[in-house]
Amino acid sequence: MEINQKIQRMKSITSFKVVIILFLLLFSQYTLLGAQTITLSGNNLTIKSAFAEIEKQTDMSIDYDESVINLHQKISTSIQGKSLEETMNILLKGTGCSFVVKNNHIVISVNAKETGKSLTVTGVITDEHGDPVIGVNVIEKGTTNGCISDMDGRYSLDVQPNSILQVSYIGYISREIRVNNQKVINVQLREDTQNLEEVVVVGYGTQRRKDLTGAVSSINASEIQSRSVPSVAGSLQGKLSGVMIQETGGDLTGRFQFSVRGTGSVTGSNNPLLIVDGVPLFNDDLSTLNTKDVVSIDVLKDASASAIYGSRASNGVVIITTKRGQSGKPVVSFSMDLGFENIAKRYEVLTTDQQRLLFVEAFKNTNRNPAVYENVNDPVWQIDTDWQKEGTRTGVRQNYNLSVQGGSENNKYAVSGSFSRRLGTMKNSDLNEFFLRANNDISIGEKVKIASSISGAHQRQNKLSNDAWGSGAYQRLISSHSYLPAYDETGDFFAVSSAADPYFGENSNPLINQLMNVNKESSSRMMGSIKIDYNILKELTFTVNAGTDLGFINGYQYLPVYQYGRYTRTEGSTTNTSRETINWVTEATLQYSKKWGRHSLSALIGASAQQHVEKRTSTTGTGTIDNSLDQLSNQTNFTATGTSVTSALASTFVRLNYSFNDRYLFTGTVRRDGSSKFGPDKRYGIFPSISGAWRMSEEAFLRDVDFLTNLKLRVGYGLTGNQNIGDFAYVTRAGASPYIWGNSMVVGNSSVNMGNPKLQWESAQQFNVGIDASFLDSRLSLVLDYYDKRSKDLLIQTPVPYIAAVSENPYVNLGSVQNRGVEIGINSNNISTKKFSWTTGFNISFNKNKVLDIGTNALGEPLQIPGENISLPNDFANLTKKGHPVGAFYMYQFDGIWQKNEVDEAALFGAVPGDPKFVDRNNSKSLDTGDKDFVGSPLPTYFGGFTNTFSYGPFSLNIFFNFAGGNKIYHAMRNLNARAVPFNQQLAEIADFWTENNPSNTIPRPSQGGNTTFLATRVSTNYLEDGKYLRLKNVSLSYALPKSLLTKLNISDATVSVNGANLVTFTKYTGLDPEASSTTSLLSGGIDYTPYPSTRFYSFSLQLSF
């Protein structure tokens, strides 16, 4: 209640003060301007010198075309104390020109009534490939006379015989062509590979790219949709420097890990802030956003760009903009994607006979009777089931999208709908998705603009359990012995009835749980926003923005009753879960923009209030013995949990942009945030930033450098924050606590955590210096950035002794982390002819992560935070410690296999020849924790991507690679299935196990229990692998159907494409996917428990426009 009241008061008071102050400033300025008079005197006064004097006296800019007015004409009349209008009329008398005032600009143009005989000029506007360009602006320079090219690129315009045509279109280099009495002028436009006038979306507005002082990476619609990927996050992979996106597995909706400029937190969140159409989101699930609706994505990377979002910007800001309507007749577009996919890679396991031999050797080494396994005539050894084949299939993807956009200048609309169906490669997994979006832009006179957006998404999914040690769906397909049949003679599931040899160990049928268990999830999401711009004055705009994001997720899980051999479930179990999220935000801003002479100023001030409500429930019932009674109401025993949490954020912010002579640029921002996640004394934080840029190419000493098109130096420094922790960690909370009362178990309440009222924001100080350069008429462009980001006051959960009697470790602010790196982005237009073109895009980022300080424990010793324990060895693989990366790998170093000539030394370690050997770091002659060492990082030190696009006539070929390296992956599957322990099916590499006659130095001797098995199971570098990879991520070949054919069918554009994704991966990693990471904890990165396997995908696409 307190935070909500403060939000409301802050909104009202701040908005009122802002409006009054800026209105008074503007009113006083306009009053002064209106009171000014103009005086011109001198014997040699010309129109040109008079214009220059007027600019000095009025702070206004005069725009003119030298071809339509004689600037050297003498002025014989002196002007004393005249108004602006009177002065301009005197100067232009007899010149055939007139003037208008537009936004502090005096625009000179030719009087239509005084022009001579006009000339009709016609022509065709084409691109570099000879294809017509639709919607090109053709204007007679110095006038408002113009037209737009039609569907065939044709235009017709009545102009003066000696006038100049200005030809311009977004994405192409503008041209000026003198008419010279020509009646036919055909124009070819060349694509602008780095359009300096490109508009980039930044916080609470837009900026021209050439005016940016911060580090911003962008991707447009054509790049987003150049690949057939089911999610927005997938379309960004490898495309943006400094932005690391890993598809780490999950279910069919995908699971992606975002990282902008490294890992800046320890136990908090590393996800960037997501903003869709101006609405900041708490829910960062991008799978509910239709890729076909996205027109651009801008990533604010450094503090100077992102500090306007304050406490949530330390991990970067991702701004997603969806398609808006364009004026003109309705344009209907339809697209269709059909494809199939198979698992990109599978594990090679031992054959049944190899597994039998492993049993024989293991039982001999552990003094067990191997007789059953030595009987090669037993029919069981003739069975060789391929469980991976039995549990998987060829997947199918379908996507259909229909959109309509159009409208008038004052009312534009864009509406789209989409349906997607995916049949997963794992049996009993599928996904259906429905998307709907409507965007509308309305202008009411010249004062008011209203932009609204509403979208809905619905997903229905059959899910499988993955990423779980020993019980993940795909992992079970590898772990079950191959000498078990999948089905019996009746076609039902086969299961053994005895645990006696040869059915020792993991002999369950993995298909029973995979195909019988029911795990359904239904999610719905609706996002909406409305923005109203009111132009109080020409330079002053008041904006109100309100948005909401509603999410509803319902889960249903049923574990059925069954009995197959010795594997039974006597009671069914039903679990119903629900999650409801409500996010709303209201914002008010006042923006002032003014240009005078060579100066440009823009100021923004605003206030924001946001609230997030999240409710969760989970109810489990057991007791049914009939699978037809599978609902919660059919059960007899119940357990339930539920939570409801509300958090809020109240903010004020200001930004100032100034430029001089379009050459020296300055940006300053300050934001003050108040969050309910922290205690009353630590609730508010201030986050400032400052940056500047110098467009060196505009200086006189570089203007004559012919090959240089643009050169800009950027420098910035700022402070951003991170509040991504659980709600109300600053207070001590109570929870259910069972205890004995008399002879009964009762449930009471006790503390579940230790509250910390001094808890406050994580903060990140970031320095950035960058260079933007383009050469050879923008055919080659370069963006280079160096950054140093230091996160401090980290939100860390510190371990406490068991005697503290709380289930949650408390949060404290402690320590700091540094990310330092270099980002390089290069784009080139290699070849450009009428029929053929070749462009290349390349980006690479280098990042070094290091914990600078993480505090001390209660004994004053340097704090060390271990990662999650891996179940079988019951030990951790990650450790976070000062001087090392976050979640660095810390384990025993595998040193080969003890050999026959090392019997005595091996005995000191409790080992025998054939057992695994580890480095004795502390020379203790025994295996202990002192032998562990830091052996690598789960965080890539470099990553990037490169694209080549070739076009020949109507054909276009796009080839995209992405890559990463410098990191390690702990292959947990091998920790279970590559130990030479036959309890479960072992991988094919185990066939080369150690024997006296085969002294392998990589695979230990087989064992089943005992010290050999213990040693083979240790968390060690034996299972730590190089995560470096280069992947052919996508190849797309498209063909644009000829216009002559389409005209007959009333189709404006049609393109057919064939696509391939994840075609080839070059890597030394032996797992299914070098991007796989099964844990979400930042402290336990790089652990691969085998998630939902990645796929190789082929598709056919069709795009039509009417």
Protein architecture, described:
The chain is 12% helix and 46% strand. With 1106 residues, it is mostly beta strands. The strands form 15 sheets. It has a 22-stranded antiparallel beta barrel. Strands 15-20-21-18-19 form a 5-stranded mixed beta sheet. A hairpin with a 5-residue loop joins strand 7 (137-140) and strand 8 (146-148). The radius of gyration is 34 Å and the shape is elongated. Mean pLDDT is 86; it is low at 1-35.
Low-confidence residue ranges = 1-35
Strand content: over 45%
Give the overall shape.
elongated
- Count of extended strands: 60
Using the CA coordinates, give the radius of gyration.
34 Å
Give the structural class: mainly beta
Our count of helices gives 16
Summarize this entry quickly:
With 1106 residues, this protein is mainly beta. The chain contains 16 helices and 60 strands.
Task: Based on the model shown, name its key terms.
12% helix; 1106 residues; mainly beta; disordered N terminus
What order do the helices and strands come in, and which of them pair?
Blueprint lengths: L1 H34 L2 E3 L6 H12 L2 E3 L15 E4 L1 H9 L4 E6 L2 E6 L8 E8 L10 E4 L5 E3 L5 E6 L4 E5 L6 E4 L8 E2 L10 E4 L2 E4 L7 E5 H4 L7 H5 L6 E7 L5 E6 L12 E4 L2 E3 L12 E7 L2 H4 L10 E6 L5 E16 L8 H14 L5 H4 L12 H4 L4 E14 L2 E13 L6 E15 L3 E15 L10 H7 L30 H7 L1 E20 L2 E20 L2 E3 L2 E3 L3 E24 L2 E24 L14 E24 L3 E12 L8 E12 L4 H4 L4 E15 L11 E8 L2 E8 L10 E14 L4 E13 L2 E3 L13 E3 L2 E17 L3 E18 L11 E2 L2 E2 L4 E2 L1 E3 L7 E4 L2 E4 L5 H6 L7 E3 L14 E4 L5 E11 L2 E11 L2 E4 H6 L32 H7 L7 E3 L2 E12 L2 H6 L4 E15 L19 E2 L6 E11 L1
Parallel strand pairs: 2-5, 6-12, 18-21, 55-59
Antiparallel strand pairs: 1-3, 4-5, 6-9, 7-8, 7-10, 10-11, 13-14, 15-20, 16-17, 18-19, 20-21, 22-23, 22-60, 23-24, 24-25, 25-26, 26-27, 27-28, 28-31, 29-30, 31-32, 32-33, 33-34, 34-35, 35-36, 36-39, 37-38, 39-40, 40-43, 41-42, 43-44, 44-53, 45-48, 46-47, 48-49, 49-52, 50-51, 53-54, 54-57, 55-56, ...
